[in-house]
Design brief:
By secondary structure, the protein is α/β, with parallel strands linked by helices. It is built from 13 helices and 27 strands.
Length: 470
């Protein structure tokens, strides 16, 4: 195993085929050589500005060539890229900056310096860690998740996630989230042309997949729903014959929606992964496996998973409990928190707060987040199940279900819904009642104009609850 730095790997790719496209955004395409020279110049500028190996650089940029250039420039000098949303309110960004203590903050509007004509290359460097991701979690308090792995790769090994060498990946997900960042980096290191979408648009994403003959695309269920809801003639008009894998993750996918995609593109192309940014363990399931284990997120492919009851004991197959995970080597943690403490059982077992169960074959099924579960009249209700039922309604574009105080039931289900066209609360209530038990039907409905979930398919239910209980 011959490991090389991320910077050295990308430089070697540029030398091997300098004119091959490396990154495309809404405005331009840069080749491998252009990406390398821009990153070299940017790395020099970072050094001149006082950034040194091991320092953190906060990258508050939208999906763009500049985002990728800044990331590669960090690796060129051994610095640590720390992506955040370019649309964060000032107070949230300030809280993250205070926590991360970066040496440099790149804000929207930043441009890479001119590549110049310096023929002397930067000395090789390795970033330790190779990334520092930001999470607000369910509480909204920021935390950093630092990968314990350095920025090293083996160019002789095949890439993960079915990404072919020298292929093309379409990435509509925001790079400040961990999974889109990891998928895009993996594709770059495999010599792929990474095509970035701007603000997600279903029709544009489908067109990019066809125009660039994408091998792999990353989606979240919200994106899948919006693409599926395109007029059938538009959805079927695009040639996706080159597509090898559609990866979806980051949020629960309603089974009916996943079935639609399997029927459309074939089970061999639909893949799902479940893991946290912390990467203690991971599961993967193919479309073919899913047809035999509908609703599952797969079997463990890295680390270990167990289901634990409220008393700390392991639960048998079929019983819902808290999902605990442990890395392959418990003595070698996969990450380090800054600003948070892990929920642990000891001996390397940790929970990210998800609830779920295992079947007799070891396939994992998720129900919801532990903190999002709502107790309605003494019965546990998982909002994700209710949201999946709401999403089936053709007028619903996005939704979130939360629990609000109720004198009679303790909590009542409240649905926050973004719709397209005319639909009433009574129609939505009847729609859900046809699919779920009566205690799972939201009592109240609130219609909003803006998407309930962000571009990564995430929703912070605690913020929704706090705003409505105030």
């Amino acid at each position: 195993m011959a490991l090389v730095s991320y910077a050295a790997r990308l430089a070697a790719l540029a030398a091997a085929d300098p004119d091959r496209p490396a990154v495309t955004d809404e405005h331009r395409t840069v080749t491998r050589r252009e990406l390398d020279t821009l990153a070299e110049a940017t790395g020099r500028a970072f050094l001149a500005g006082g950034v040194a190996a091991g320092d953190t650089v906060t990258i508050a940029l939208p999906n763009s060539v500049e985002f990728v250039v800044a990331t590669v420039a960090c690796w060129k000098i051994g610095a640590v890229p720390q992506p955040v949303s370019s649309r964060l309110p000032a107070a949230e960004l300030d809280a993250i900056i205070e926590l991360a203590a970066p040496k440099l903050v790149l804000r929207p509007g930043w441009e890479a310096p001119d590549a110049g004509h310096d023929s002397e290359r930067l000395p090789d460097a390795v970033s330790k860690p190779w990334k520092a991701m930001t999470s607000g979690g369910s509480t909204g308090r920021p935390k950093l998740i630092l990968a314990n792995a350095p920025g090293l790769t083996d160019p002789d090994l095949p890439a993960s996630f079915l990404i072919p060498a020298d292929g093309c990946m379409v990435m509509p997900g925001p790079l400040y989230h961990n999974a889109p960042f990891v998928w895009a980096v993996t594709a770059l290191l495999a010599g792929n042309h990474v095509v970035l979408g701007g603000r997600f648009d279903a029709a544009t994403t489908l067109r990019l997949m066809a125009d660039y003959r994408a091998d792999v695309v990353y989606l979240v269920p919200t994106m899948m729903l919006r693409i599926w809801r395109l007029p059938e003639e538009e959805r079927l008009a695009h040639d996706l014959s080159n597509l090898k894998a559609v990866w979806h993750l980051a949020a629960p996918c309603p089974p009916w929606l996943k079935q639609c995609w399997i029927d459309w593109l074939g089970p061999e192309r639909i893949w799902e992964l479940y893991a946290g940014t912390e990467a203690q363990a991971a599961t993967i399931i193919s479309g073919a496996e899913w047809l035999a284990h509908q609703g599952s997120v797969g079997r463990t492919v890295s680390g270990e998973i167990r289901i634990v009851g409220p008393d700390g004991d392991d639960l048998p197959a079929g019983e819902v409990g808290e999902v605990y995970m442990r890395p392959p080597d418990p003595d070698k943690p996969t990450y380090r928190y800054v600003g948070a403490t892990a929920r642990t059982l000891g001996d390397g077992w940790e929970s990210l707060g998800d609830m779920g169960w295992l079947d007799a074959d070891g396939y994992l099924y998720l129900t919801d987040r532990r903190t999002d579960m709502v107790l309605v009249g003494g019965s546990n209700v998982y909002p994700a199940e209710v949201e999946a039922a709401l999403d089936e309604h053709p007028a619903v574009r996005s939704c979130a279900v939360i629990g609000l105080p109720d004198e009679d039931l303790g909590s009542r289900l409240h649905a926050v819904v973004q719709v397209e066209g005319e639909v009433t609360a009574e129609q939505l209530r009847a729609h859900v009642a046809e699919r779920l038990a009566s205690n799972k039907v939201p009592r109240t409905y609130e219609f909003v104009d803006d998407p309930v979930r962000d571009d990564a398919g995430k929703v912070r239910r605690s913020a929704l609850r706090d705003a409505r209980e105030a």
